[in-house]
Amino acid sequence: MTGRVMIIGAIEAGKSSLVKALFNDEQPARKTQALEYRDWVIDTPGEYSENPMFYRTLMATSLEATIVVMVQDATRDRNYFPPGFAQGFPQACVGVITKVDHPDADVQRAEGYLRQSLGDARIFPTSSYTSEGVPELRAYLQEIVSE
């Protein structure tokens, strides 16, 4: 693999669990305190997406990535990304909806939030718990980073 995937999203949106699912790692996820590099993935702290003071750090870190994955938790009732946020990155962005298996999940609402920030880019509904959508997402991302 030559490229990298940068994963961004709110605190407790399921980013670290998603990374573990992408690597078939069954260890429990823990809070990401700083940028974490794992093979072809860059996992970012949720604070970076929630606080506009950190947007510059996300933009700078994205220069190390081939693609940016914007994560939206299906159980959340607000969007943590500003409208058009994906346009601030020099590379392509895709969306991932996490926790689609959760009883409180509203996948349509989550997709609507991502569309506001992402436009018409591809969106993958996933569950790190049941692995729903994870193999498709993994294959898609690995194809992009290996090009």
Chart the SSEs and their pairings:
Elements: E1 5-9, H1 15-22, E2 36-38, E3 41-43, H2 46-50, H3 55-62, E4 67-73, E5 93-98, H4 107-118, E6 123-125, H5 134-146
User: Which residues form runs of ≥5 with pLDDT under 50?
Assistant: none
How many β-strands, per DSSP? 6
Radius of gyration in whole Å, from Cα? 14 Å
- Per CATH, what is the topology? Rossmann fold
Question: What percent of residues adopt helix (DSSP H or I)?
Answer: 25-40%
> What is the number of independent domains?
1
Element pattern in H and E: EHEEHHEEHEH
Shape: globular
Question: How many helices does DSSP assign?
Answer: 5
CATH class: Alpha Beta
Family: Belongs to the EutP/PduV family.
InterPro entries: EutP_PduV (IPR012381), P-loop_NTPase (IPR027417)
GO molecular function: ATP binding
Pfam family, one: PduV-EutP
What does it look like?
Belongs to the EutP/PduV family. GO terms for molecular function: ATP binding. This is Ethanolamine utilization protein EutP. InterPro entries: EutP_PduV, P-loop_NTPase. This protein is of the alpha/beta class and 147 residues long. The protein has a single domain, classed as Rossmann fold (3-Layer(aba) Sandwich). It has helices at residues 15-22, 46-50, 55-62, 107-118, 134-146; strands at 5-9, 36-38, 41-43, 67-73, 93-98, 123-125. The protein has a six-stranded mixed beta sheet, sandwiched between helices. Strand 5 (93-98), helix 4 (107-118) and strand 6 form a beta-alpha-beta unit. The longest helix is centred in the last third of the chain and has 13 residues, at 134-146. The chain starts with a strand and ends with a helix. The relative contact order is 0.22.
